[in-house]
Each structure stands twice: as structure tokens, then as C-alpha cells.
Amino acid sequence: MKQHEIRCQYYSQEDLLGAGCLDIRLAISAVEMAMRAFEAGEVIFPEKVVQIFNEETQERINCLPATFRKLRVCGVKWVSVFPPNPVKFGMQNLSAVIILSEIDHGLPIAFMEGTLCSNLRVGAVGALAARHLANPQSRSIGFIGAGEQAKMHLLAMKSVLPSLVECRVAAKEQAEEETFCREMGQLLPNVAIQGTGGNLQAAIEGADVIVTATSAQAPLLKAAWVKPGSFYSHVGGYEDEYAVAQQADKIVCDDWETVKHRTQTLSRMHQAGELPDHQIHGNLQDIVLGHLPGRQSPEERIYFNAVGLAYLDVAISHAMYLRTRDSGLGQDLKIQQEMIFEHAHLKNWIRI
């Protein structure tokens, strides 16, 4: 290897899957580590850069960086969210890539597919919240939405709530429900999974765990369907009527200061003066690290809202990188062989 040669590893989604990175426990462990590091002041976490191309549909590309000082790694997630994709083009609505660099010399160490990590982070954070906030003997889970994040949420919830044996799902399109039931039924044969033909109430009413994971900007979830003792994981934007939060015994966020400036249901309530700061129980990090109590009663209705914190994606992607690197999968990429003016043939390539 020449003195100024720079190389990094490329990992496709198939490389990551082949190395065993669809691992909820790996992701949860990385999230818990990241929360401890964040509290200790070891994380650099700048504001994300958002480029919205269509205000109505919220088609956008975001750039989200973070650095872990002790791990000596800096990462960035470049993620596109195009909600119309599934219906208009039959394509996924989220796509991401992640770049990791070491911070001793500032050189890249990995370029990797990021959609798996992004969806895994959503599921892992929801599952970590459920570990502390759901009834531990929960048996049923209801979904509004049947896309990739709903599927990941089901895997994640089952990993922390092994007592789950029943799943009901409602989606906008019948085909989405059928795909969800077929794919998840193969992965979780001990869970009875059924679609409701788009009947939202049938999917949710009586469920111990509730998940809304849609791109809709409408109050689909009704408070009357949310039973005492349930745990609600709010994944998307504006998906539930205000009364769902108003009747909750505890409201927990991944980060309330971030949530209240966004467009989630809780954000809208706060901006309308209907949800003051003191009505928020706290952030998930404070519960995980033992600073605040989680569930204290079997009858509590608990509302959890996560907008997504990119430093958690970087932590998970770093754990995935280490596992995949050690597996031998992936490709070696040469970024440069020499510095620009060291190239012997530069005079043949230059244009002035």
C-alpha cells in the first residue's frame, strides 16, 4: 500500500444481512451505549440539514451527522423520504446510505447501505421504549400502517415482549396488508397475524401495544380505541387525534426539545398551547439510565413518540460495520492511490 493511498470498505444491504446485522439486540445495545455516551458529553450531534422538495407530500432528503469521541468515529446518514413512492411507483419510500470516518486522520473507513440501519434504529428505539413502558405480559399488538418500519417494529417488539402472540394490521391498500401478513408470518410463525381490510378500529381496539407507522398527515388513531394499560409507539408524523395524548398517563419522547419543533401530533399540540412542557414525563434516555421511572402501573396508558436521533443511527451503523468487517463480507474500495500532484500521468489528464 502506497503512502498516500486511501481505502475503505463498501457494504451492501446483502452484506450486512449476511453478516447477521438484522439483530435487534445488537441495535438495542448500541442505542443504550449511545445514550450513555451522549449523557457523558462524548457525542457531537449537530443539527440535521433538511431539503424538502414538496411541502404537501414531504418528499425530502436529509443529511444527519454525529461523532462519538471515544469510539473515534464520525458518521453521516444521507436519507431520502419520498412518501408517494409506494403507491405511485411501487418503490420503497425511504432510502439511505451511511459514511463512517475515523477521526484520528479524518479518513473514510466505510460506505454502507443505510436503509437497513435506519429502519432497524426505528424498531430498536420503539422496542427499548416498550421494554420500559409496555406491560411485560402484553399479548396483542395492533398496527396502522404495513410498510417497512411497521415490519421492523413487529420484529423488534417481539424481541422484547416475547409474550406477543397476536398481531392485527390495517393499511390503506389491501395488498399492503397481505404482503405484511405473508412476509411477517414466515418470520414469526408463532404469532397469529391478520389483516383487517383497512378497518383501523379492528386493528387497534383491545391491543396491548399500538403502533402507527404511516405517511398520512391525519388523525387516524382514535382515543376511544386505546385501552387502559396499553403502550402506544408513534412512529410517523400526525397520525392520532389529540385526545390520545390527552388521556395518556405518561408521555415519553426520544427527545422532547426536538419533538416540539417538528410536525408530529405532540408538536402540533404544543405549538397550539395544548401541551405544556410539564405534561411530558421525560425522555427515553432518562428512563433507560434510571433517572426517571418507566411504567409504574398495569393500568397506565403510555404514549411514546420518537422523531429519530441520528447519533443513534451512527452508533448502530458502527456496530454493524464491526460485525460485517469481521465476517469478511463486503468489498474493498480504493478512494485514491496517490495525492493529486503525485500522479505520473497528470499532465495527460489535466485540462486548462
UniProtKB/TrEMBL annotation:
The keyword Lyase applies. Its EC number is 4.3.1.28. InterPro entries: NAD(P)-bd_dom_sf, ODC_Mu_crystall, ODC_N. One of its GO terms (cellular component) is cytoplasm. It is an enzyme of class 4 (lyase). It holds the Pfam family OCD_Mu_crystall. Gene3D superfamilies: NAD(P)-binding Rossmann-like Domain, ornithine cyclodeaminase, domain 1. GO terms for molecular function: lyase activity. Keywords: Lyase. This is L-lysine cyclodeaminase. It comes from Lignipirellula cremea. The gene is rapL.
